[in-house]
Amino acid sequence: MKSVINDELAVACKWFDDNKLELNPTRCKALVLSNKHSLNLSFTINDIQIPCVDHLELLGVVIDNSLRFDKHVTKITKKVGKQLDVLCRFKKILSSSTKLCLYNSFIISYFTYCSPVWHNCLKSDSQKLDKLNERALRYIYSGRSPTNAGELTERTGYTLADRRIQDMLILAFKAVSNLLPTYLSDLFTIRENIKNVRGTNKLVILKVNTTRYGTKSVAYTASKAWNSLAYTLRCMKTLKDFKIAVRSIVNLHM
């Protein structure tokens, strides 16, 4: 495996050179997705060894070598916690509607950013996010009737898990409607040889070998959620209409 990857790195370096681009090996890191800590792998770019790390941040998402995403959840909790600390200083002078606007603008985006990637994080980490979201909702509705988590989430209309699955369904709709770049749309395949109308626009559920890297993948989870939708939803024509419809669906836990 090491020799194959190093050969591919050499091809990548040549592409950079051919296109008059400069690749800085000292800014590169290698991440090996494996639980086997004894793996002795080394990678080089232009004879410079690339350090192997157990996690790295890519486009705002912290990816670890076990795909647990616990470090990414820790990042989310820190950022949301800081935002809430600031907002709580003004809780007595802001109306609930203003607080809700701030929540939708500065809080929910952290909870949902690239969520299809890390949706299948550890259950304990998912619960940690739920607790933090409950704290945010208590800030919004302080002094009003809701007292438990269920009543608080009823006001938003969804749980964080619901919202993440809704985002996956929107991703699947874009794939079915050819609204995604090829490298993403290739993750999904529409079923052929449909025997009845209600099977239209269903996706192939990939055969997997492992739970962690199979059933918890974006392609598997999103396809399974998509196939569970009603026929009328799967056959909607516009992304706008589908978003409106899917955002109203609750209890989407997969």
Description of the structure:
It is a single chain. Strand 2 and strand 3 (48-50) form a beta hairpin. The protein folds into 3 domains: 2-53, no CATH class; 64-156; 163-246, no CATH class. The chain has helices at 2-18, 70-88, 96-112, 115-118, 123-140, 149-156, 160-176, 182-185, 211-215, 218-227, 231-234, 239-246; strands spanning 30-31, 43-45, 48-50, 52-53, 55-58, 61-64. The two termini are 35 Å apart. A two-stranded parallel ribbon has the order 1-4. Strands 2-3 form a two-stranded antiparallel ribbon. Strands 5-6 form a two-stranded antiparallel sheet. By secondary structure, it is mainly α. 52% of the residues lie in helices and 7% in strands.
End-to-end C-alpha gap: 35 Å
Helix-and-strand structural type: mainly alpha
**How many E-type strands?**
6
Side-by-side strand order of the widest sheet: 1-4
Silhouette: globular
- Based on CA atoms alone, the radius of gyration comes out at 22 Å
Percent of residues in helices = 40-55%
Number of domains: 3
Report the biggest beta sheet as strand number plus sense, adding barrel if it closes.
2 strands, parallel
State which percent range the strand residues make up: 5-15%
Please mark out the parts with pLDDT under 50 across 5 or more consecutive residues, or reply none.
none
Number of helices: 12
Order of helices and strands: HEEEEEEHHHHHHHHHHH
Summed over residues and divided by their number, the pLDDT gives a mean of 85
